[in-house]
Amino acid sequence: MNDDKLDSLTEVLAGARRIAVLTGAGISAESGVPTFRGKDGLWRQYRAETLATPEAFERDPTLVWQWYDWRRGLIAPVVPNPGHRVLAAWQDLFEDIAVITQNVDGLHEKAGSRNVVELHGNIWKVRCTREGTVSESLLTPLPEIPPRCPDCGALLRPHIVWFGEALDASLLERAFALSETCQVMFAVGTSAVVQPAASLPCAAGRAGAKVVEINLEPTPLTRSADIFLRGKAGDILPLIDRRLRENMRAGGRDVPPGP
Ligand code: BJW
Known about the structure:
Elements: H1 3-14, E1 18-23, H2 25-29, H3 42-45, H4 48-51, H5 54-59, H6 61-75, H7 82-89, E2 96-101, H8 107-111, E3 116-118, E4 121-128, E5 134-136, E6 156-160, H9 169-181, E7 184-188, H10 200-206, E8 210-215, E9 227-230, H11 233-250
Parallel strand pairs: 1-2, 1-7, 2-3, 7-8, 8-9
Antiparallel strand pairs: 4-5, 4-6
The structure holds ligand BJW.
């Protein structure tokens, strides 16, 4: 990575207290979770319309659940990678850091991040289609497909936001508030095409934040980002972390060793 870019980024971060990070499937790719739109992405092999819409679930809940059961099986053994771990470790370096994630894999929490907004839900949660109650469901494979609510017998659905569904209004409000009040916003490993999440870095930029994008390739966000760092999140975030800690130490701050 270009050293000048790293220098200007560490300069920007040196004075920052409030950081927001929007993450997408790319940050979990190095843990072994498939992305959606990449070379081996899920939407290259499966049709979103038949698996990730409310209409698909209404038509064939068994098919939709079989797909989610398979994905839960893929995600169950994976662990956070250096990208997730750096973001969790930055809780020691910045007064306020929030992770706004489109991912449903729970890996940020697993890495130790505490302030996480899960915009698209969580694959380890289920929701009763009759009562709307949300509960954890960790068994994989599921003992019964499609699973039913133990209280009322109605179908359970994955607690995930499908295409055409509204995001939880209070989570979205929180995500915009975090984006519009941060000083630096990172967009890490997201194709930045799915709304409304893709609008968050733009909202941050309009409100005066520096926008830093980390991705293997340019996205629709790249042109308006202040700094674009091309490469793997699991390489670039640790690189930034090391440089940041060196600078903080040089400035007389007592900082713990990195993750
Ligand atoms: C790396 C890397 C490494 C790889 N390091 N980088 C036309 C225009 C505008 C909007 C719309 C439209 N038509 C329809 C819409 C709305 C729609 C939408 O935005 N569609 C677009 C695709 C066009 N949005 C919705 O429907 C949302 N709801 C909504 O708008 O509601 C309105 C409403 C209001 C009131 C009432 C009713 C409705 C809901 C969106 C829900 C998205 N859900 C999904 C599926 C969840 C299913 C599941 O997980 O099972 O969420 S779609 C899928 O995309 C998933 C992701 O969270 C989301 C974003 O993907 P992400 O994370 O960006 O991943 P990828 O794969 O796209 O990109 C990975 C990136 O990482 C790439 O750039 C790589 O280069 C990079 N990368 N390895 C760094 N190691």
